Amino acid sequence: MDSVTESQRAVAPTPDVPPDVAAVLLGAVDDARTAIVEHSGEDTVGEYLGAGFEDATSATHRFLAELPGYRGWQWAVVVAAFPGAQHATISEVVLVPGPTALLAPKWVPWEERVRPGDLSPGDLLAPPSEDPRLAPGYTATGDPMVDDVAVEVGLGRRQVLSLWGRNEAAQRWHDGDYGPGSAMARSTRRVCRDCGFYLPLGGALGVMFGVCANELAADGHVVDAEYGCGAHSDTPAPQGAGSPLYDPFDDGVLDVVDPGESRPSS
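The structure corresponding to this sequence follows.
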């Protein structure tokens, strides 16, 4: 009962809680503990942590939870009483995280968790609704002469890349592994725009980007015109023909002499 008295002293009634109601609410520690025992068992209730008022007629008693896997969690028992009541009523028994409880990370929607490289064979990944990277494409007119030409130049798609989408892609490529700021590009003075293996992209993106066609370099990747590597088409061949500096020594013309044989005097 001493612990109950200490708790009552630790929690002062708020101005809008009548003193008699506060005494009943704060004195319901044993009732709160009994409610937890009935809910989850005797060995799941730990140290009493105190109480706090929810409003003028209810308070919450907290106990340390002794459950495997719930270290730092607390039992919260809400009790209620009205003016003139002789005892409190148990309203709710819940398990809540304490200040040191281990919690799962904040939930992130699936479409926000997908990252580049996550797509695998057989996966379906639809673009987000109202994707700013896409804009409506060419609308067919019904005239074969017009529509055939439109399809031939790439206007027959329902959606095309928007200006925002092109700018976003350009920034991503420029800042990526095949941009001018990468370690490979910084290690050479030659750039892709002067390389014979560089195939510029069509349209506005062709000013800054192309595709590498060197199978020993960034083959098939979009590279920045300012990117560069050691496999540039203008890389000079090594000096010299690879011949040794000295003639080979033919050990077939040597006389093998036993070190133990005595040598004739000169």
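Helices lie at 2-10, 19-26, 29-40, 110-113, 144-152, 163-175, 183-186.
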